[in-house]
Amino acid sequence: MIVVDCTVLADWAFGEETRKRASIKLMDTDPVWIAPSLIQYELGNVAWKTCRFEAGWKPELVRSVLEKASRLIHQYVSELNQSEILAVALDLDASFYDATYLWLAQKLDTSLYTRDRKLAAKATGIAKWVEA
């Protein structure tokens, strides 16, 4: 069981081939992905941007891929402790969004996997960078 952020899920769904392969490889390593429920909104925004700005991505295809990607998350966590998340954000100088993923990984005693190299560097021991 691992926590993944939207960068990993979006790469699986809409990323270029090398990034998509990195997300697939991560899934082969640990297929039980958990995320805070906010990932649904973040991924939805990536889907919207893909429809608007990526030639060749028709809305029907984007909807289908979005649906499949959403099923990769085994558990969406909505019970969040905002006070503790804020403490993580302030301690690591991370956004509240990023701190939510880090807090969840800490709470579940697992790692956060991300394509955000800066976040992984800020949160060594909690976050791991997914290299493409």
Textual characterization of the structure:
- The chain has a single domain (2-129), classed as 5'-nuclease (Rossmann fold, 3-Layer(aba) Sandwich).
- It is built from seven helices and five strands.
- Helix content is 60%, strand content 14%.
- Helix 1 (6-14) packs across helix 4 (59-70).
- The chain has helices at residues 6-14, 17-29, 38-53, 59-70, 82-92, 96-107, 117-122, and strands at residues 2-4, 33-36, 73-77, 112-114, 127-129.
- The model has no long low-confidence stretch (mean pLDDT 96).
- It has a five-stranded parallel sheet with strand order 3-2-1-4-5, with helices on both faces.
Biggest sheet: strands side by side, in what order?
A: 3-2-1-4-5
CATH class: Alpha Beta
CATH architecture: 3-Layer(aba) Sandwich
Helix content: 55-70%
Major beta sheet, specifics? 5 strands, parallel
Q: Which stretches are poorly predicted, pLDDT < 50 over at least 5 residues?
A: none
* Overall 3D shape: globular
Q: Could you list some keywords that capture this structure?
A:
132 residues; alpha/beta; globular; Rossmann fold
Strands, helices and their partners?
Layout: E1 2-4, H1 6-14, H2 17-29, E2 33-36, H3 38-53, H4 59-70, E3 73-77, H5 82-92, H6 96-107, E4 112-114, H7 117-122, E5 127-129
Parallel strand pairs: 1-2, 1-4, 2-3, 4-5
Could you write a compact summary of the structure shown?
The chain has 132 residues and is an alpha/beta fold. The protein has helices at 6-14, 17-29, 38-53, 59-70, 82-92, 96-107, 117-122, and strands at 2-4, 33-36, 73-77, 112-114, 127-129.
